[in-house]
């Protein structure tokens, strides 16, 4: 467009560098220029978050960069929200996340929440210290595609198998894919307890969730 | 040559030769859970942690918190207990901040966990600064000394003193990791000022520690390389060098609790000069093997740990457990500057009998130098 100053690459760069002020400024500029809000999300914000996730998985980015990038996307999305509500924005899927009972660590879960939302998933974050029956209730209520459980302590990760059993008893296990993550959790542990997927880090969560919903 | 388990552990920490591998086992999470649920094995009901470990043939690692009580000048502290939650409000002339903790020892934890931290927004800097400027630590060693007597020569009591470096205190106890990184980005000079004030508080702890009988204090820990690597060189390495020089001059060793993912912190850890890396949790719980760690650190750091907590879980067979421990002994051969232990605890559903199995394997293969 003649006189256009907005470019997706600049927005992506703002997201990747965690510049929330610039991200918001560029989103406003894009809206002024008539760029479709759903395109700003997919080709700008989500594209930026994919780069951040890949850099994290590659070991080039750390949690601080992820946090700042996710915050930039959150702020930019707040600006877009009134415009998006008029658009039928498809979600990739619905995810319920929580840190298991007895565990109050949330940074990994929070990052996964931010990244999944940034990638286009609808996420219900239950918080921390969540007992098995609350996970079951949330699956009944929200009918998610994926249930994600986080634990940072070896003392609490065993709760994950209790939650899977609770889903079986409630007749819900076949309705939802279960993924697990957190520092002490391993692929071996995840397979042993019957989870459908294991996320080694926040960056890989998006790829795992996309794979599980077939997108 | 070393005789008692405590002497073995200290000798290994001091890079001195010992007769066999020291073993300092930690089981407080398992113990707290089963004592709280009245599910301790019949034999162990009413027993203490040290006595259970003695019965298992293991050396003892017993944890202790602080060596002081905390007071604040010119501050009203209001505590509201609603078990398992405790809310503490700090009413200062510069504003009021509060924190909320949860303590459920019957589920395993030996310390309260922070649910809500005092710093919630940039508006809280004045109140937090006031608290740090007006913190007074009063020495209190009674509980520590009781534990030392309980353990005797069969192991060590490891104190969380000072527990964390100044920046780790801010990251963990004042702001939380997420808020910390937002603030470091948005208000770096304010964070740096808090850091300087926190140094003053931690130095109070170090001076109490210096006059205490604690041999090997925990100077920091609970790191994860995806969180700490970007700030470690600037805020952690120089601090530990300075603290190490001070504590070494007082005849003490320094210990860090390395229970997280350490891969990208391994090179910088060597620069810290910390003597002992405890709670070493190798693969499969983290991405680093003991072989890789030993190769990186050589004999400059004594490692305490090596058997990841997950190996004690029932999902691993006895045969797999034995194979892991034997492999560990091969990895560390000839075995000097190493203390076998958990990475970092025995979980509530861990098999207690595997503690004695480690002791048996050390008796069989752990005479130094190891030739397995």
Any overview of this molecule?
The complex is a heterodimer of chains A (215) and B (372). Chain A has 215 residues and is α/β, with parallel strands linked by helices. Chain A contains ten helices and five strands, in the order ααααβαβαβααβαβα. Chain A has helices at residues 8-16, 20-32, 37-57, 63-84, 107-119, 132-142, 154-157, 159-169, 187-193, 202-213, and strands at 94-99, 122-125, 146-150, 177-181, 197-199. The longest helix of chain A is centred in the middle third of the chain and has 22 residues, at 63-84. The radius of gyration of chain A is 18 Å and the shape is elongated. Chain B has 372 residues and is α/β, with parallel strands linked by helices. Chain B is built from 14 helices and 14 strands. In chain B, the strands form four sheets. Chain B has a five-stranded parallel sheet. In chain B, strands 4-5-6-7 form a four-stranded antiparallel sheet. In chain B, strands 1-2-9 form a three-stranded parallel sheet. In chain B, strand 13 (302-308), helix 13 (318-332) and strand 14 (338-343) form a beta-alpha-beta unit. In chain B, helix 6 (166-175) packs across helix 8 and helix 7 crosses helix 8. The longest helix of chain B is centred in the middle third of the chain and has 23 residues, at 188-210. The chains are: A alpha/beta (215), B alpha/beta (372). Chains A and B meet through helix 4, helix 7 and helix 9 of A and strand 7, helix 7 and helix 9 of B.
User: Can you give the helix content of chain A as a percent range?
Assistant: 55-70%
Helix and strand content put the structural class of chain B at alpha/beta
Q: Taking all residues together, what is the mean pLDDT of chain A?
A: 90
Corresponding CATH architecture of the largest domain in chain A: 3-Layer(aba) Sandwich
Annotation field: number of helices of chain A = 10
Largest β-sheet summary of chain B:
5 strands, parallel
Q: What is the CATH topology assignment of the largest domain in chain A?
A: Rossmann fold
SSE topology string of chain B: HEHHEEEEEEHEHEHHHEHHEHEHEHEH
Q: Based on the structure given, which CATH architecture of the largest domain in chain B is correct?
A: Alpha-Beta Barrel
Assess the beta-strand content of chain A as a share of residues.
5-15%
Strand content of chain B: 15-25%
Evaluate the radius of gyration of chain A: 18 Å
Relevant CATH superfamily of the largest domain in chain A: Cobalamin-binding domain
Give the end-to-end Cα distance of chain A, rounded to a whole number of Å: 32 Å
Q: Major sheet of chain A: size, sense and barrel closure?
A: 5 strands, parallel
Number of strands of chain B: 14
CATH class descriptor name of the largest domain in chain A: Alpha Beta
Global morphology of chain B: globular
